[in-house]
From TrEMBL:
The lineage of its organism: Eukaryota, Metazoa, Ecdysozoa, Arthropoda, Crustacea. InterPro entries: C-type_lectin-like (IPR001304), C-type_lectin-like/link_sf (IPR016186), CTDL_fold (IPR016187). Residues 1-18 form the signal peptide. This is C-type lectin domain-containing protein. SMART domains: CLECT. It comes from Penaeus vannamei (Whiteleg shrimp).
């Protein structure tokens, strides 16, 4: 009897920890992530602020790709879940932005301008402009994605939330 109760408790705990993410979110490296593609009519393409509002409506915020390994895991998830045109061509708003003269994730973590997460020769140096981060495909033959920059009027067809 004791062993049966112990096994039941272990099963419940493992199920609870496996499904700790809100509905619609997937656990990736222990973070709850949701990829949103053209969420509703009239929302495609969208600006960074609209994407951020969409995440807040879903109970989260734009994803902070910290630790850096999260970018690779999210890229694999996109490739597996949205093969073809979306995986190969779409850009995704994520939660990096300029703060003063530096870059920061929405969760407060610093985003290094020297990181290999960036498209080569980005982000812009010594810019006082407002910039936001986009996750962009490297090329159709490489599952890798990089960070690119977009301004306040830039648009993207998709975004990634984190709860």
């Amino acid at each position: 009897m004791y062993l049966g109760v112990l096994l039941t408790v272990a099963l419940v705990l493992s199920t609870a920890s496996a499904s700790h993410c809100p509905t619609g979110y997937q656990s990736i490296l222990g973070k709850c992530i949701q990829v949103v593609i053209a969420a509703s009519f009239g929302e495609f393409p969208i600006r960074w602020e609209v994407a951020r509002s969409g995440c807040k409506e879903r109970g989260g915020d734009l994803v902070s790709l910290s630790p850096p390994e999260l970018l690779e895991h999210v890229s694999r998830y996109i490739d597996a879940t949205y093969p073809g045109h979306i995986a190969n061509d779409y850009t995704f708003w994520v939660g990096g932005q300029t703060v003063g003269s530096g870059w920061q994730w929405l969760n407060g973590d610093k985003l290094s301008v020297k990181s290999n997460l960036w498209v080569p020769n980005l982000p812009p140096k010594n810019s006082d402009a407002t910039w936001y981060t986009l996750l962009v495909p490297a090329d159709p033959t490489t599952p890798r994605r990089y960070l690119n920059v977009g301004g306040p009027s830039s648009q993207s067809p998709a975004y990634i939330c984190q709860a």
